[in-house]
Each structure stands twice: as structure tokens, then as C-alpha cells.
Specification:
The structure holds 2 protein chains of 2 kinds. In chain A, a hairpin with a 2-residue loop joins strand 12 and strand 13. Chain A has a 6-stranded mixed beta sheet, with helices on both faces. In chain A, strands 2-1-4-5 form a 4-stranded antiparallel beta sheet. In chain A, strands 12-13-11-14 form a 4-stranded antiparallel beta sheet, covered by helices on one side. In chain A, helix 3 crosses helix 4 and helix 8 crosses helix 10. Chain A is 32% helix and 28% strand. By secondary structure, chain A is α/β, with parallel strands linked by helices. Chain A folds into 2 domains: 219 residues, Rossmann fold (3-Layer(aba) Sandwich); 72 residues, Alpha-Beta Plaits (2-Layer Sandwich), CATH 3.30.70. In chain B, strands 1-2 form a two-stranded antiparallel sheet. In chain B, strand 1 and strand 2 form a beta hairpin. The chains are: A alpha/beta, B mainly alpha. Chains A and B meet through helix 2 and helix 3 of A and helix 1 and helix 3 of B.
């Protein structure tokens, strides 16, 4: 088997007394899209920063393409493309100039970057905005420009930190579509997100992280099958919270209450739905279990302080 | 790349694209920024040089009496080098580092933090040199000095600007916001302006202040540059150059360590 593109082994980082990353190990194979999901403060961004050599781990080993961090940080970063959580585009430059200036940081000859710029702008659907400054772009356009900028060195691995946070659905779908094109071209992606639909759509493998630890790992569907009952019935409306202790409880393997909504997790929703239909003021939603259910089951429903 | 805070600089030629980035941005705004940079020092020069100069008449420098405007011009060009370098390494560098997150973007590419700090330092010095050249040209046009030795003032002023950029980058690394720089200017830069012999001879200072002023970087810059305006060579060039070099090296080292701590 070929050496993994990125290999992280027993990574640990603490700030003061708080462990932020606590014995994390994972690898990414070529052509793979690995998603790291976890609540705010789970250690996702710190993990990415350590992979980039921007934060020094207390313990553990990071190797990429036969090189190791932090000694070969510059050589490794030459083959990475990064979209960070917050835009760092140059406000004084146009889109095309942003790409040119960024290409120079990789030591690329001007002629090479100049030749790549039209393709990158086209890929980001920004050809008509080549001479426009970032401040005049929409949020989605700015993110796509950040993505185009991350591709300027034709990287082997893309590291994306919450690439669609703050975007409207149209912009998010366009971003997903662009990322899928990259995956089809054989690029590898490491992605952090807390959008479960994003993780399910893009990632071949997921790593669920909480309190700096890996708490689950696998393909999205496989994770759901392993941890959850296949069907979910949500019941809400007047008197819903009492249902958790009613006769209907017997038709579900597991029940969760969140505010005024009751979640029934079951292997066969038929008898349950029939029982619930006797309550006229109740509204129900029957759906297959999804990643969000998995995420909430593994990391809990309570709001995090850090969030 | 090395880890930890205290280690030799981790530099490569990648400082150049960062310097070039600043140059390209500045090129777009060069004219208004130049006007801003030279208008204020020239106002000081005209108001104090001609206004006060009429009252003061001649000023004794060593064994020579020179017109006050010449005395002031030679000091204020050093002050301009200091101010231009400090402003760029504080307000502008801080905008790029903290507000625009330009440095974060650059560090995702194979450019080390140390290289970025070096680029910012050289850029601030370069911009100060540019300002100083413009001011010297106006002084030449006003006929304040026609000494051919003024050509030698350019590398010396560039060197002084490097020292002031390095010092300013320490405070850039420590700043939590723009307000912090007010302290730097009111507690460090402004007193230095008055203690370094820019506006009046240091001989006028009381003994303690006089002794303190011997240690100020601006004093060394003025001592190097003023004689050139009078068509003379500085008296102890090596001492002043070494003093400025000492400030530059020590301050750059401190700025690197503190900036690394900030980005840890």
C-alpha cells in the first residue's frame, strides 16, 4: 500500500491545563476526502494548524508525503492548499492580483502563475470579476476566491477549515459542486465542518472529534448504521414531552427529549406512527436517521460554553 | 522550521514576495501617501526653521555657527526617517498582521513567520527611505544645503530607518489594538524627538538628560547626518553606526521572539 498523503500519530496539544488535542491519530490516502466533524472547541482548527506547522504539538508525529513536521514544514506546505476559516484575501488587490501575489509566496515563476490565473478564476466562477477587489464580492465569491487561491500551487492535499460557514444555500451548493469536481480530478481533501449534510455529501470518511479525542471514525453511512437505529420519528406540538413516558415509548428502541420535541429512534416506525396518530394535536415527522442524529448522539445536545 | 520561541532566525529568500506585496499595494496609493508623509515634516521645517530661525539666528555646532534652518533640517530629516519607519511598522504592519489577517494567509504558503517579520522590517525602512529622499529633494530645492556629502546621508538614513523599524516591530508584536501605539509615540518617540538634538543643541539639556540622550538611537542618527549637511564628515562614525546596529540587531531579535509568541 502506498504511504498515506498525511499521517498523524498520537497528536497532543494542551493550552495551560486544558487538553485541546488529546492523542489524535488519523491518515489520509490519496484521492480521499476526510471530514473532521465536532462541536466548537473540539480541537479541529488546532489539529489543522498543527498539520500546517503553525502550532507546535506537545507530543505526537505528523508526516506528509515522506516528509515530517515541523522540520520540513516549508517543503510540506509547498504541496498543500489551505482555505482557513476566516478570509485572509488581500483587500487591496483584485481577484487576479490576489492569485498572482499568492503564487509568488510559493516561489512560482510569474509566467506559470499568469498562465494558471484564467483557469483558476474560471474554476471559481469569477472570470467576470477578475479585476474586482474582494470587498465588492459576495461571501460565496470570496470563499471561492480563497479556494482558487489555495489551488494556485496545484497542491496534492487541500486543507479546508469550515469552508462554507456563513454562506447562503446557493453559495454553499456551488462550493460543494466545486469541491466535488476537485475530488473527481483526484485531489485529496481534509475538511473540517459542522454541517452534517456537507460532511455526508463530500467525505468518503469521517472522523468525529470531541474534547480533542477521536470518538468515531468511518464512512458516513456505515457510521450511521453502526451507531443508530435506521428510522427516526420526531413528535412535537402540545403534549409531546409527555410522550416520552407514554405507551408509545415501547415502540422505539431509544427516545430523546429536546425541549418540546421528542425523538423516537426505531427499527420499524409503523406501529409507533399508528400509536402517535391517536394524538390529534401532535405533529410528527418520519425520516431516516442521518449524520446529525449521530453527531448529537455522540457529542450530546447541550450547548457548548466555547460556542 | 524550528519550534520554541528562542532560536536563530528562520529566514529564506521568501521574504521578497512579501516585500513585493507591500510595494505593489503602496504603488497604488503612493502619491497620496507621499504627500501625507512629507507634508508634516515640511510644515515643521518651514514654521520652525524660518519662523523660529529668524529669532534664533545662528546655532553653534561644534566649532561652527550655522543658520537655524540648516540645523533643524538636518535633525528633522532623521526624525522623518524615524516617524515614517515607525508608522509603517506599527499601524500598517498591525493592519496586515491583525486586522486583515494577511500574515495568516501568507503563513499557509511556504513562508516562515520570521521571513514575514524581516519583510515588514525592510519594507518599513524602504518606505522611510523613500520619504526621506522626497524631503531631501525639497530641502535641496529650498537651498537649505547643497553639500555633495548629502548623498552619503541616504544609506545612513536607511540604516537608521532599519533600526527604528526593528524597534517598532517589538511594539507591533505586543499590541492588542491601535490604541497601544499611542503609548509608543507619546512615551518613546516624542521625548526622543526633543532629547536627540533635532530642535536644539543637546548642550542645552540638563546633565542627566544629556547623559540619557547619549543612548538614544535618534541621537546617533542625528550625529551621523547633521555634519553631512554642513559638508563635513561625522566625528565618530563608527561609534554611531555600531550603536544603531546594536539597536537594530537586539530589537529585531526581540521582535522575532515576541512575534513568534503571539502566533504560537
Amino acid at each position: 500500500m502506498a504511504a498515506p498523503l498525511l499521517d498523524v500519530d498520537q497528536l497532543r496539544k494542551r493550552y495551560g491545563d486544558t487538553p485541546v488535542v488529546d492523542g489524535l491519530s488519523f491518515g489520509i490516502a490519496r484521492g480521499e476526502c476526510l471530514g473532521i466533524i465536532g462541536p466548537n472547541g473540539a480541537g479541529k482548527t488546532t489539529t489543522l494548524r498543527m498539520c500546517l506547522g503553525l502550532t507546535a504539538p506537545d507530543e505526537g508525529r505528523i508526516t506528509a508525503m515522506g516528509l515530517s513536521m515541523p522540520g520540513d514544514a516549508m517543503a510540506i506546505k509547498a504541496r498543500f492548499g489551505v482555505v482557513s476559516q476566516f478570509d485572509s484575501l488581500d483587500p487591496d488587490f483584485s481577484c487576479a492580483e490576489n492569485l498572482m501575489v499568492y503564487g509568488r509566496y510559493f516561489g512560482l515563476p510569474v509566467a506559470v502563475v499568469r498562465e494558471r490565473i484564467p483557469r483558476l478564476l474560471e474554476f471559481a466562477a469569477l472570470t467576470h470579476k477578475a479585476d474586482v477587489k474582494p470587498a465588492e464580492l459576495s461571501g460565496g465569491m470570496r470563499r471561492r476566491l480563497s479556494l482558487a487561491r489555495a489551488l494556485v500551487n496545484d497542491p496534492d492535499l487541500l486543507l479546508l477549515d469550515e469552508p462554507t460557514t456563513g454562506l447562503d444555500p446557493q453559495a454553499r451548493h456551488l462550493m460543494w459542486e466545486r469541491l466535488q469536481v476537485l475530488l473527481q480530478q483526484g485531489k485529496s481533501i481534509l475538511l473540517t465542518t459542522h454541517f452534517m449534510d456537507e460532511a455526508e455529501r463530500l467525505c468518503s470518511r469521517l472522523l468525529v472529534m470531541d474534547h480533542g479525542r477521536k470518538i468515531a471514525e468511518g464512512a458516513p453511512r456505515e457510521l450511521i448504521a453502526r451507531h443508530l437505529e435506521p428510522d427516526v420519528v420526531e413528535a412535537y406540538g402540545q403534549g409531546a414531552s409527555a410522550l416520552a413516558h407514554s405507551d408509545a415509548r415501547a415502540f422505539a428502541e431509544r427516545v430523546e427529549v429536546s425541549g418540546e420535541t421528542v425523538f423516537f429512534y426505531t427499527r420499524g416506525a409503523g406501529p409507533l406512527l399508528q400509536a402517535l396518530s391517536r394524538e390529534p394535536r401532535l405533529r410528527t415527522l418520519h425520516r431516516p436517521a442521518n449524520l446529525e442524529d449521530l453527531f448529537l448522539k455522540l457529542t450530546g445536545r447541550q450547548i457548548r460554553q466555547e460556542g | 522550521m524550528r519550534t520554541g520561541l528562542c532560536h536563530p532566525p528562520d529566514l529564506s529568500l521568501r521574504w521578497w514576495p512579501v516585500f513585493l506585496r507591500n510595494l505593489l499595494v503602496w504603488r497604488k496609493l503612493a502619491v497620496p501617501s507621499l504627500v501625507g508623509n512629507i507634508a508634516e515634516p515640511l510644515m515643521w521645517l518651514v514654521a520652525f526653521g524660518y519662523g523660529m530661525g529668524a529669532l534664533v539666528g545662528q546655532v553653534q555646532v561644534g566649532d561652527r555657527a550655522v543658520p537655524y534652518i540648516l540645523f533643524l533640517a538636518s535633525g528633522s530629516v532623521c526624525m522623518s526617517a524615524m516617524n515614517a519607519a515607525s508608522f509603517e511598522a506599527l499601524y500598517s504592519a498591525f493592519s496586515r498582521m491583525h486586522v486583515q489577517k494577511t500574515w495568516d494567509g501568507i503563513m499557509n504558503a511556504p513562508v516562515s513567520l520570521d521571513s514575514i517579520v524581516l519583510a515588514e522590517m525592510l519594507w518599513a525602512a524602504f518606505k522611510a527611505l523613500f520619504t526621506v529622499v522626497a524631503i531631501l529633494l525639497v530641502m535641496l530645492a529650498l537651498g537649505i544645503s547643497h553639500s555633495p556629502k548629502l548623498l552619503a546621508a541616504l544609506p545612513l538614513l536607511a540604516f537608521a530607518a532599519v533600526a527604528f523599524s526593528c524597534i517598532a516591530l517589538i511594539f507591533n508584536a505586543l499590541a492588542r489594538g491601535y490604541d497601544f501605539f499611542t503609548y509608543y509615540f507619546t512615551l518613546f518617540v516624542t521625548p526622543m524627538m526633543f532629547l536627540s538634538g533635532v530642535f536644539f543643541p543637546r548642550e542645552q539639556l540638563p546633565g542627566v538628560l544629556r547623559a540619557a540622550s547619549d543612548w538614544l538611537p535618534l541621537t546617533h542618527a542625528v550625529e551621523l547626518v547633521r555634519p553631512l549637511f554642513m559638508d563635513q564628515w561625522p566625528q565618530r562614525p563608527l561609534l554611531h553606526l555600531l550603536a544603531l546596529a546594536g539597536y537594530a540587531v537586539a530589537a529585531f531579535g526581540a521582535a522575532l521572539v515576541l512575534t513568534r509568541r503571539r502566533f504560537r
